[in-house]
Amino acid sequence: MSTIVEKIQHIHQQIDEACRAAGRPVGSVALLAVSKTFGVDAIADAIAAGQQAFGENYIQEGVEKVGYFADQPAYRDKGLVWHCIGPVQSNKTRLVAEHFDWVHTIDRLKIAQRLSEQRPEHRAPLQVCIQVNVDGGTTKSGVAPADVEALVREVAQLPRLVLRGVMSIPDAAPDFEAQLALHQRAKSVFDDIARLGLPQLAQWDTLSLGMTADLQAAVQAGSTLVRVGSGIFGSRNYATAG
Q1: Residue 216, φ and ψ in degrees, nearest 5
Q2: How far is CA 18 from the centre of its chain?
Q3: DSSP string spanning 18-60?
Q4: Three-state DSSP class for 72?
Q5: What is the DSSP string of 114-183?
Q6: Dihedral of alpha carbons 49, 51, 57, 58, sign
Q7: What are the tens digits of pLDDT across the range 93-107?
Q8: Residue 51 and residue 12: Cα distance in Å, rounded?
Q9: Mean pLDDT for the chain?
Q10: How many angstroms separate the CA atoms of 127 and 103, rounded?
Q11: What gap in Å lies between CA 148 and CA 198, rounded to an integer?
């Protein structure tokens, strides 16, 4: 069985190959290791491979992991960055604001306002992305593409947040071309917002697209950050997820 170190190396090779195929510079796409449901030992192995950015979907589980590594002297200089990539409910905003570095799933002004209000003053502003529902599914999280600009203009005014870009999680598509078409919708939204030229969007630079199964299509579409979980850590046991 491949080790986590070997799997991370393989994912980086895939990203590099996808960049070359898309005519993009190697190194222009970052890797976010999605560590939800996996324990601290697995994360420690990924850190040993040089991975610094980790994504968590379940807030309480993520907070516990953030705290564990913060309490370990050996990890304090590793530059770990924690991304919340799951839905944020109103009763969890304080936990997110106090412990995470990034939030990818802003789709309501109310949540953004609470995160801004609850972000501790001693911490750097929270880096956030707007989640866009490119499929149009009524049961999925994310704001409709047509409504992104209005939300961006409001979120960009909040003092303890820095709005960095767009995130999307489209439904699984049957082939590369279908995957690419979905990701291109998110890229179009990202570009439309960039063209607004708002001064509050000086760091509008993040397009969080693509997972293990659609990484190549996401890079082709313009992703700057791919979220890979099973390709690094293996299959998940959701029965133990919290």
Answers
A1: -60, -45
A2: 19
A3: HHHHHT--TTSSEEEEE-TT--HHHHHHHHHTT--EEEESSHH
A4: coil
A5: HHHHHS-TTSPPEEEEEEB-SS--TTS-SB-GGGHHHHHHHHTT-TTEEEEEEE--PPP-SSHHHHHHHH
A6: positive
A7: 999 999 999 999 999
A8: 11
A9: 95
A10: 6
A11: 14
State the pLDDT at residue 1.
46
Place of tokens 């304080």: 94
Residue 135 exposure: Cα atoms within 13 Å on the Cβ side: 15
Contact 111, 88 (CB under 8 A): yes
- Mean pLDDT within 171-200: 96
Q: From its phi and psi, is residue 62 left (phi > 0), alpha (psi between -120 and 50) or beta?
A: alpha
> Which residue bears the tokens 């767009």?
166
> How many Å separate Cα 212 from the centre of its chain?
13
Q: What is the CA radius of gyration of the chain?
A: 17
What does the pLDDT look like over 131-164, one tens digit per residue?
A: 999 988 666 789 999 999 999 999 999 999 999 9
